[in-house]
Fold this protein.
Amino acid sequence: MLFTTKLSSQFSETQLPGEPYSDLIFDKHMATYDKILCHSLYSNLESETTVIIQTKAYLPFGVNGVTYDLGNSTFLIQLAHQSKNIDRWWTLLHEWAHVYQFDLGKLEEPVNGPIKWMGLPNDFSKPWSERPWELDADSIANNLWDVHLSYINKPEGRPRR
Ligand SMILES: [Zn+2]
């Protein structure tokens, strides 16, 4: 009995550096508020997941964010530099929405196969505004904004419909 008590108190006091957020990895440019937002978004995930977020990534012109399923429940979000907070937050929420889609199996990115939405290969010939996985991500981003940033106006024209 004494041993059990001693052991449990020992565990509760022991934390590794970076805990309890060791499965969220940020690059050095990530703004503090954005990190706090990500900790809340991380807690919505269904399964044990590692999310790596790179800000100020070099992305093709006009692309603000990309999310990759790296396999083994590990995801990489890359964000282009956006100086306006509300634009950056919208992109961040939209990319997190893709992580949720991957996490729930709605969006799939197999190593040797086509990216799939709801079990069917993604049709990239459709314009962005007609891609169901993007419309769904914008809808999720919209809901996340209402929950986490309700006191701030959304960027002009968001969500895209
Ligand atoms: Zn997207």
